[in-house]
Write a structure and sequence with these properties.
By secondary structure, the protein is an alpha/beta fold. The protein is built from 10 helices and 18 strands. Helix 8 links the parallel strand 8 and strand 9. It comes from Chryseobacterium shandongense.
Amino acid sequence: MSYITLNTEKLAQNYDFLNHLFDRHEIEWAVVAKLLCGNETFLKSLLSVVDTDVCDSRLSNLKKIKELSPETKTVYIKPPAKRLAASIVKYADVSFNSELETIKALSEEAFRQNKLHRIVIMIEMGELREGIMADSLPDFYEEVLKFPNIEVSGIGTNLKCLNGILPDRDKLSRLVSYRRNTEERFQRKIPYISAGSSVTIPLISKGSVPEGINHFRVGESLFFGTDVFNDTFIKGMHKDVFTLTAEVIEMIEKPMVPTGKVGKNLTGESPEHNEKDRGKTSVRAIVDIGVLDIDVKQVYPLREGIEVLGASSDMMILNITDDAMDLKVGDELNFGVSYLAVLRAMNSDYVDKKVVCREKKKISAIAQI
């Protein structure tokens, strides 16, 4: 059976890197844990490493976090479904909101549960995902102030996730002005502007994050060391916190071009092949993982001499060159994985989850950004 491994030491080092970076710039941050899909083994590893708030967009995952670590502050980072108000108040200390009717329901539930529920008001800044229009903020905020047991702890925005709209100094500066104007009008402090995410990290070193943007929500850069803004990696961070491992279940020399009438495959594609390869052969290996478990376009072999050719539902086909001819049936192969590959694997019951636990160490390249 294939499995995905989380390396706790490398995760801890990535966490230390980001923690030092944000500390230097007087920014608070929270870890976005939704990639782990509520897996208890991996959540325990994460909670052993971090001492920040933990965010998720699935209520069941926040419930699991509270069961494992009741003292951890939890943040629900999408507009809540109104019908889930009772559970949101129970398992999330903070929620991100953009609908007054939902906030009213949260207020009623917070009153029933004798709790103070904190919210972040999300503002639309061009990405066209969640958020109120900026010019409606004063009226929206005034209505929120009427709800008992609700406290506005911040305003925020989301960028990059849907339409790929990137953050810039202008957008972030406008958020700062929205908070300042609202505070002056209502004579109330709004502690946080939660406008930073993995994509915003590279802007810190460029001086493009204005004073006042004081809260980041980070998942991808923590787990993969990615510079999301420039589609590369951050120097000094690990990109291999996760590793996918699969076993070779067949290894045979076969023709390079299939024979017969071509229709559509499992994923609805009609694969094309180079006719110059007709009559030639190559050694092909099959490993025990497929498109039910991962996105094969988001994995890459960590050993030279291996090329991913494609996959069916539960098998991935590899081309083996001379550099890897010592492989044999029963051997395990390791693959690097992207965010989406891990997300797919985490949602598969057919991929085991394992943890490599080692002593937490500091890295010498801390916070070079």
